[in-house]
Amino acid sequence: MEVSYPIVRKTYKASEIEIDPHEVLRYLGYKKELITEEDIAQVESFLPEAMACLKPAACWSRFEIEMLEEDKISFPYGQIVSKDLSKNLTAACREILLFAASIGLEYDRLVQRSRISSMAKASFLNAIGAAAVENVCDRLNEELRQLVAAEGKSLRPRYSPGYGDYSLENQRGIFDLLTPSKHIGLTLKDNLIMVPEKSVTAVIGII
User: Fold this and answer.
1) Are 60 and 186 in contact (CB under 8 A)?
2) Closest Cα partner for 50 from 8, 113, 3, 2?
3) Confidence at residue 163, expressed as pLDDT on a 0 to 100 scale
4) Is pTM beyond 0.90 here?
């Protein structure tokens, strides 16, 4: 399928990624008002090992879409029906950014090794990984915001397959368009699980 814009690959240093212990604990189900200094210290004790395994990378491109009636959207990979995504993009949207981001396979291996010796440690590392990939997404999102701002445009909030009625099946179309296996080593299994696991794909509307 023809791509209107080139696919851009972006990498980050692990030291650029910011991990908020409160965010990690939120992923673990801790209530904000009940978090203690000991909880924060426990997260921080795992950070050096976690940061050493981060290989943050992303790829993105820009595509034209057409907002149709009855919550239908003509995407580059085909027509979809999603009330939630239609509301997110708004009727004014004519272009989108698609991206895929990951913190790398080495981090998956770290979590898997940790499960053998300590499920508690693996849980903390899993939550740290989730916070790390979200920070990668936030950093890329800000760069893309600045890019379109230079054109006098703005971005809608990013929206990922699996949220609302924008089904996980849309992963296939995003992967067909971005080919992230080529650019950042991110693949999609038949059951729609991404490898590495700590990865995100998303749609961002441009208005």
Assistant:
1) no
2) 113
3) 95
4) yes
